[in-house]
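Ticket #4471: structure output looks truncated?

Reporter: J.K.
Steps to reproduce: submitted the chain below (280 residues) through the standard prediction queue, then opened the result file.
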Amino acid sequence: MAIFVQTASEWLVSLKTSTAVVKALAFFLAWAVFWLPLAIPLAILLKWRPPKPLVTEQKLPLLAALYLVAPLILWGASWVDEVSFSDYGLNWELTILSDLSLGLGMGILGLAIVFTSQWKLGWVKWQGENWQGLGKILLPVLLLGLWIGVTEELVFRGFLQNELQHDYPIWGSAAIASIIFALSHLIWEQENTLPQLPGLWLMGMVLVLARWVDSGSLGLAWGLHAGWIWGLTCLNEAQLISYTGKGPMWVTGLAGNPLAGIAGLVCLLLTGTFLILLPH
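Returned output as attached by the reporter:
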């Protein structure tokens, strides 16, 4: 026990004195400083006051402002470090498009397996009358997912992962980056996000694995991330499924959030297993 406490204490001290951690904190502070002058007027205009939960119509403009600022901060970080976005894993070679497509397919397939299994078990019901509404949102949600996916991958699996790897081993860096990734979602909503934190952390770890499998490129991770956003948002916004209440909530997910239940964790673990089995 004493050895464990000493090891943990040494790790915390190294974390405090880590140059990478300081640079990461500076990055997120700069991101917030540039975003807040846009976010505050938007929040007033949208009549949103934290910690009141955001509705979709309120969240999207605030999210757009946040992600419009991100490339500027990332460019500043890359200029300071004298690197390019390709060092963060984003290169515009043709291979990234094939990796992106593979990731999208894997993300959608994983969700299809999870929800089809729950349907077979009688835990969810497909709302067939709502399928017509899917066509209106399919492309816009895909574009939104691609935008959110590439921004978050550049920040968390690109910049942050690279910085932390200067001071920590790859999986230690991945664990820290994934914790930060999970906690960042608390900005938008706290009550529903708290049960999802373990799932969000595991999601971050799987996306780091995707970058590692992809030889440092973000294409596969970007596709997975965008695919999950695309699939889940379409299901929710088009109201394609409803929960029957027959399945345990701890399995299906609290408040209908798959990442807050065993089903979402299993989906991530299966995805991670498939990534390991991919030839690389």
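Triage note (M.O.): checked the attachment and the full token line is present. The mean pLDDT is 88.
Status: closed, working as intended.
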